[in-house]
């Protein structure tokens, strides 16, 4: 079964945030970390994976991403704090 991920990157604790959706979290975060994708993430050096959710429904993932992008900044920070209070980069967790 295919997996989809909604993820949040941060430049640092309480720093600039980015929300995205992908079907390959390891590859996508790697691309962000290596600066392989032009745009917001590369420009603002937003490359620490601080939150992610997993689903097997692409529509759910896309809708969740859209929902989270509309949230107030504090709601996003609260979600990170609840799930990752130390704001650790979760990339090592997902790469095993």
Task: Itemize the secondary structure elements and their pairings.
Elements: E1 4-10, E2 17-22, H1 25-33, H2 40-43, E3 48-55, H3 58-70, H4 73-83, H5 91-95
Plain-language structure description:
By secondary structure, this protein is α+β, with helices and mostly antiparallel strands. Strand 1 and strand 2 (17-22) form a beta hairpin. The protein is built from five helices and three strands, in the order ββααβααα. It has a single domain, classed as GIY-YIG endonuclease, CATH 3.40.1440.10. It has a three-stranded antiparallel beta sheet with strand order 2-1-3, with helices on both faces. It has helices spanning 25-33, 40-43, 58-70, 73-83, 91-95, and strands at 4-10, 17-22, 48-55.
Topology as a string of helices (H) and strands (E): EEHHEHHH
Q: Give the end-to-end Cα distance, rounded to a whole number of Å.
A: 20 Å
Number of strands: 3
Largest sheet, order of strands side by side? 2-1-3
Features:
96 residues; alpha+beta; GIY-YIG endonuclease; three-stranded antiparallel beta sheet; 5 helices; 3 strands; globular
Summarize the structure.
By secondary structure, the chain is of the alpha+beta class. Helix content is 44%, strand content 22%.
């Amino acid at each position: 079964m295919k997996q989809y991920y909604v993820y949040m990157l941060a430049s640092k604790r309480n720093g600039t945030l980015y929300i995205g959706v992908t079907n390959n979290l390891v590859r996508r975060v790697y691309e962000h970390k290596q600066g392989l994708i032009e745009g917001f993430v590369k420009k603002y050096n937003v490359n620490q994976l601080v939150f992610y959710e997993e689903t097997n429904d692409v529509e759910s993932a896309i809708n969740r991403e859209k929902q989270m992008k509309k949230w107030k900044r504090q709601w996003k920070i609260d979600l990170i704090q609840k799930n990752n209070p130390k704001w650790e980069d979760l990339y090592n967790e997902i790469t095993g």
